[in-house]
Amino acid sequence: MRDKILSMLQEGQEISGEAISCALNISRAAVGKHIQVLREAGYQIAAAPRRGYRLISAPDLLNQIEIGRWLPPDSPWRIDDFPELDTTMREARRLAEEGAAEYRVVIAERQTAGIGRLGRPWYGPAGSGLWMALLFRPHMAPTEAQQLTLCNAVAIAETLTALGFPVGIKWPNDILSLHPDYPHRKLCGIRTEMRADSDRVEWLISGIGVNINMTEFPPELQDIACSLRMLQQGRPLRRSQLAAALLQQIEQTYRQLSNSGFAELRQRWLAHAVGIGEQVSIHAPNGMERGIATGMDEAGYLLLLPEDGGPERRILAGDMVLRT
């Protein structure tokens, strides 16, 4: 009910308590109680006798109303928002198993057990970043699923670049800062889960974590992570607006992948690539690989020229470490 009242207030004009009461079929007293709860949540709402209520300002919250303000009316994304979850991935997985349609987004202000790639803990204090899980039901074979994750990395890198942030992509999908004060520090990570049979993907979930408004990190992360706020001299960003921009660009790249394939999106990934042509180490499932990363093939696998002089290899999965 409060979301409906807030939607009515978002129109920017004064609206009377009586009009809200009639539209939502609730009492004037109930309207007043909902308005008070919204004020306690951080919404500044003015009230004038015989004129009604008017929204003055909104807090930087990640909910469907705040993000929806920045999305086009025909956006396909359906947003489920939570003050706190153990992980957004687990909630998205539950929805997927229950048959939820694609373009479902689970967002939490705080995760108590966030997990990054390779099962690593994810640092994500409340109110500082964007923690979301996106549900897709792509028409593709399991061997092609990595392409969707790579396309999501392209969408994030392109969105941040358009906003003026110097970023790059480290294979397969880490978004790194290219700012001279914070070189190669991680800004965003993507973790993927899917259910598939032998020839098709039933569902795929992309868990995305973006460091937005942090001003400091724990000692163990200070040299490997940073935030968008740190890249712009401490000026905070409106997280709901950034979330909407990312969702729009992710939708665009997903539709392009579905309709036209991976070839052109692969070139866009390479345009943002960090480490290609350089000495790297790969923590692969079967052990450590070292050599020169020479590119990415048409399927999305890393090409590595081993330092022992062997033939070029295709790396199917792993964690790439830049060697400086």
Explain this structure.
- By secondary structure, the protein is α+β, with helices and mostly antiparallel strands.
- Helix content is 30%, strand content 29%.
- It has 9 helices and 15 strands.
- The chain has helices at residues 2-9, 17-24, 28-40, 64-68, 88-97, 145-162, 228-231, 239-260, 263-271; strands at residues 44-48, 52-57, 78-85, 104-111, 129-136, 167-170, 174-177, 186-196, 201-211, 273-274, 279-284, 287-296, 302-306, 313-315, 319-322.
- The chain has an 8-stranded mixed β-sheet with strand order 3-4-5-9-8-7-6-10. A 5-stranded antiparallel β-sheet has the order 14-13-12-11-15, with no helix packed on it. A two-stranded antiparallel sheet has the order 1-2.
- Helix 2 (17-24) crosses helix 3, helix 6 (145-162) crosses helix 8 (239-260) and helix 6 (145-162) crosses helix 9.
- The protein starts with a helix and ends with a strand.
Strand content: 25-35%
Low-confidence stretches: none
Stated plainly, the CATH topology of the largest domain is called: BirA Bifunctional Protein, domain 2
What is the approximate shape?
A: elongated
CATH top level label of the largest domain: Alpha Beta
CATH superfamily of the largest domain: Bira Bifunctional Protein, Domain 2
- How many strand units? 15
Q: First CA to last CA: what distance? A: 55 Å
Q: Write the element-wise H/E pattern from the N-terminal end onward.
A: HHHEEHEHEEHEEEEHHHEEEEEE
| Mean pLDDT across residues | 91
* Secondary structure: helix percent: 25-40%
The number of domains is 3
Give me the secondary-structure category: alpha+beta
Strand order of the largest sheet: 3-4-5-9-8-7-6-10
Assembly type of the shown chains? Answer: single chain
The CATH architecture of the largest domain is 2-Layer Sandwich
Largest sheet: 8 strands, mixed
Spatial extent as radius of gyration: 22 Å
Helical region count?
Answer: 9
